[in-house]
Specification:
This protein is mainly alpha-helical and 130 residues long. The chain is 82% helix and 0% strand.
Length: 130
C-alpha cells in the first residue's frame, strides 16, 4: 500500500486537488483489490484479500514512473500516451504473472479481465494528471 500512497500523493500534488484525488485513488485500489479477490475466489482460485492488495499495490509501481517524469519534463500528448501505455502494459503483465496462475486454466481470461480493467482505470487517472 506504500506505492498506492505514493501514487495518490504524487497525483494529488500534481493536480492540486489533494483531498478528492488522494481519497479516490486510495479507495479505487482497495475496491479493485477486493473485486479481483472476489472474482478469483468465485472462479475457484485460492486467493486471499491481503495477497491481492499486495500484488495489485506492487504492480502499480510502473504507473508511478510517468507521474515522476512529468514533474521534471513537460510531456506532450504523444509522448505521454507512449510512456503511460508502456507502463500500463508492464503493470498488467506483472499482475497477471502473479494473479493469473492462481485461477484455473480454463477460466484464465475471466480471472485476468478485472485486472486489466483495474490498471486501465488507474492509468486514466495518471494520464489526466500528467
Amino acid at each position: 500500500m506504500v506505492l498506492c500512497v505514493i501514487l495518490a500523493s504524487l497525483i494529488s500534488f500534481k493536480t492540486g486537488k489533494a483531498e478528492s484525488i488522494f481519497g479516490s485513488i486510495f479507495m479505487i485500489v482497495w475496491a479493485g483489490s477486493v473485486i479481483v479477490t472476489m472474482n478469483t475466489r468465485f472462479l475457484g482460485g485460492p486467493a486471499s484479500l491481503f495477497q491481492s492488495i499486495c500484488v495489485m499495490g506492487y504492480c502499480i509501481f510502473p504507473l508511478i514512473i510517468p507521474v515522476v517524469v512529468s514533474f521534471f519534463f513537460n510531456m506532450g500528448a504523444g509522448y505521454k500516451t507512449i510512456v503511460i501505455g508502456t507502463c500500463l502494459f508492464w503493470s498488467i503483465i506483472s499482475a497477471m504473472a502473479f494473479m493469473g496462475d492462481i485461477v484455473p486454466e480454463h477460466r484464465r481470461f475471466l480471472g485476468t479481465y478485472p485486472i486489466v480493467l483495474f490498471y486501465v482505470f488507474i492509468s486514466c487517472f495518471v494520464f489526466m494528471a500528467t
